[in-house]
Design a protein that fits this description.
The protein is mainly beta and about 170 residues long. Helix content is about 10%, strand content about 45%. A six-stranded antiparallel sheet has the order 3-4-5-2-1-6.
Length: about 170
């Protein structure tokens, strides 16, 4: 089941004197957070975004009702969440949190190779870490290798022929 609220980042400090906070983004980047209209705390408290801008690798956010550095300081260290319904994802694009936990399945014979336990963002392409029997395997998320991602079905189909026996048992 997909989570409604997804981790977006962490408030790492205040900025200036008017109640702005600095958010370290855990999603696509500071631009992504700057494009949102609201965020949430773990307890469900909604934080409406009055303004947001990118500064280096962080997002500077001014929330409604937080107008002093003292008020902003109370939020330092808190994780902020986004509501997945507030975000439009293009066809074929998924949240990383939805990919983790999917089963890697051979697109040729249906054999299960383990679960995706991490998604590593390399810049060129994502890499899926598949864990099986305590051992990790790295699968590049490229069209030649990953033929289908079915979040609702709970699996990712991979072309193991391209990977040259990666999952074959060692003697």
């Amino acid at each position: 089941m997909k989570k409604k609220y997804l981790e977006a980042g962490k408030i790492v400090g205040t900025h200036a004197l008017k109640g702005e906070v600095r958010i370290d983004p855990w999603c696509d980047g500071p631009d992504f957070i700057a494009g949102l209209k609201r965020l949430f705390l773990k307890d469900g408290t909604e934080l409406k975004i009055k303004s947001a801008r990118v500064h280096k690798n962080i997002t500077i956010v001014h929330f409604d009702g937080i107008d002093t550095a003292q008020q902003a300081e109370e939020y330092k260290g808190k994780i902020v969440y986004l509501d997945r319904d507030d975000v439009y994802l293009p066809e074929g694009v998924n949240f990383i949190q939805d990919i983790i936990g999917l089963v890697a399945v051979d697109d040729n014979n249906g054999e299960e190779y383990g679960k995706i336990t991490d998604v590593i963002q390399t810049g060129a392409n994502d890499v899926y870490q598949v864990t099986r029997d305590g051992k990790n395997y790295l699968i590049p998320k490229i069209d030649e290798v990953v033929s289908e991602i079915d979040v609702d079905g709970g699996f990712v189909r991979i072309n193991t022929r391209i990977l040259g026996g990666l999952f074959e048992d060692e003697d």
